[in-house]
Design brief:
The chain is α+β, with helices and mostly antiparallel strands. The protein is about 35% helix and about 25% strand. It folds into three domains: about 60 residues, 434 Repressor (Amino-terminal Domain) (Orthogonal Bundle), CATH 1.10.260; about 55 residues; about 140 residues, Umud Fragment, subunit A. It is built from seven helices and ten strands. InterPro entries: LexA-like (IPR039418), LexA/Signal_pep-like_sf (IPR036286), Peptidase_S24_S26A/B/C (IPR015927).
Length: about 270
């Protein structure tokens, strides 16, 4: 199961016998949005921000939505396989099993399920606990310009999540307080070359919403989204700096510059 299937499983478990409308109201969601997430016919996923908000409202530990007990994971995986096997046997019996006695039918169905029962017992006894160092980082369809600026999306789509190791990131020199704050966006343009090249994926920390020292930031200025170096020029201005010498630096008013995140790592392994 991927991260969104796990979240959906936990969401269903959390709702239980409660009215979905009441849950949506309590969580600050539109009922239609919640219904889309729960539906098997839509591709709407439970995103990071909403998951963290629900955890806070319900008093759940941060990251509760992203994990599943081993026995639940095994039962879910085996349940999917058992459904497929049972369906196949039923389809076979429906097509060509009219002359098969009822007792034989039951034995065939039992035989289809038996190996899976054995697998479940073995997994329950031998499967180790959830260990390891891998976490998921959401990769958003956000193109931040390293040049003329990009107009930000109101509702950015999410690409497939990227699995990374927090300890390995720290070994590379990446400093962060909580991996839930790490996201991925895409650099666009040439003004930050050679540090960041056109279309390079970037790991950013979205918990940093103000200037915390010289560095490369993801920020809005003049209704556009940028990735540039920022330095304090004076009490009222930042200096917006391009690493590419062919692009001019400029002064921007600090009160008109809205920092969205700090860039921590270029996915080509260039530390910034």
């Amino acid at each position: 199961m991927d991260i969104y299937e796990i979240r959906k499983h936990n969401l269903v478990k959390l709702i239980g016998n409660q009215r979905k409308g009441s849950c949506a109201e309590r969580w600050g969601m539109a009922p239609a949005h919640l219904s889309q997430i729960l539906s098997n016919k839509t591709a709407k996923n439970l995103g990071d921000d909403v998951a963290r908000r629900i955890e806070g409202i319900e008093g759940l530990p941060r990251g509760w939505f992203d994990t599943m007990a081993v026995d639940e994971q095994v039962q879910a995986d085996v349940g999917d396989s058992r459904l497929c096997a049972t369906d196949l046997v039923k389809q076979m019996l429906a097509r060509s099993g009219k002359g098969i006695p009822e007792e034989t039918r039951q034995r065939l169905l039992a035989a289809a399920e038996e190996p899976l029962k054995a697998t479940l017992v073995k997994a329950d006894l031998a499967q180790p606990g959830l260990v390891g160092d891998e976490v998921w980082i959401a990769h958003y369809d956000v193109r931040a310009a390293m040049g003329g600026g990009q107009i930000p999306h109101d509702y950015p789509e999410m690409f497939k999540d990227v699995r990374v190791s927090p300890s390995h990131l720290r070994e590379l020199g990446v400093e962060f307080s909580d991996h839930h704050h790490l996201k991925m966006v895409t650099g666009w343009g040439q003004s930050m070359e050679p540090t960041i090249r056109h279309r390079d994926p970037l790991i950013v920390d979205v918990s940093i919403r103000e200037f915390v020292g010289d560095g490369i930031y993801l920020f809005c200025w003049g209704d556009h989204l940028y990735i540039k170096r920022l330095q304090i020029a004076d009490e009222e201005h930042f200096e917006m700096i391009s690493d590419n010498s062919r692009h001019k630096d400029r002064m921007v008013r600090r009160e008109e510059t809205y920092i969205q995140a700090r860039v921590l790592l270029v996915w080509n392994a260039h530390l910034v």
